[in-house]
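Most newcomers find our protein records easier to grasp once they have seen one. Read left to right, the backbone structure tokens trace the chain's path through space. Nothing more is needed to start thinking about how sequence determines fold. An example says more than a description, so a record of this kind follows:
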Amino acid sequence: MIVWLNGAFGAGKTTAARALVDLLPGSTLYDPELVGDGLRMMLPRKRLAEVTDYQDLPSWRRLVVETGAALHAETGGPLVAPMTLLRQDYRDEIFGGFASRRIPVRHVLLRPDETILRQRIDQREEVPGDPEANESVRRWCRDHLVPYRTALSWLGADAHVVDTTGLTPAQTAERIVDAVRRGAGACDIVQTPEPRTATVAAGVLLFDDQDRVLLVDPTYKPGWEFPGGVVESGEPPTRAGIREVAEELAVRLDGPLRLLVVDWEPPRPPGHGGLRLLFDGGRLDPEAARRVTLPGEELRGWRFVTEQEAADLLPPERLHRLTWALRARERGRPINLEAGEPVG
């Protein structure tokens, strides 16, 4: 298990984490900030200059999962990770990575009153005897208060909230231990094992009467997606698409699916790539759309979108796939893609 302590910069996560390790039997402190420190030492300056926060580095997010999984296997006990995560897509990527490795996460938000938070920031001293360095750290914390307030719209629903106003670190740790023992903060993300080889996946495009396409928002990875999933051994791809739509949306498709796109996805570590198929599942009438029911541990939302709106939601490779699938639907014939681009 990983107990992830989230909150604003300056909320006292690290201090509370140290106290928590003393109370949680067999636990180990795991500070993802050290992963960022290592990348700062190893990555070329040119690459570091391209980001303002090491969390924006895909390598950081991947290494946080890999390092945490390795440390968890090495120690055999709970890990306590004090780390601010204000972007929901980064949370999805990291927590989804742990879920795929069968490591449960308890997400806890430390939330003091903002007046107290600002006082703690003003008193923060990272480097004793270096006023300039300390003021730089305080400025960083203040600059992230607005993003923190914005993130509360999803953090408050995703994590177990502990109001730390007036609490000492020891008292905060006691509250967290009690919450963890009650199962609070559990992130019930679908625990799909990491593929060990190339896979075949079947996605299904469903449309409304305005020809908008239905997308879903997974809890376990960043970006929106099409309904669908990996084709199981011995399963026809069309049956896999029908099965996934029923499991994910509680929508049962009666008619046959029409192939729109076959896309070969190249292996990009840690992914193994494979074949990605997109089928036309037809139109959902308003009554069927009202009956859509999502599995909360796998999907947090769905919506019909235009192609232009999809550009703001889908990662590039999925957007390319959708673009060509829509062209195939217009032309009435499937299109063969490799890495998102048509061939032949």
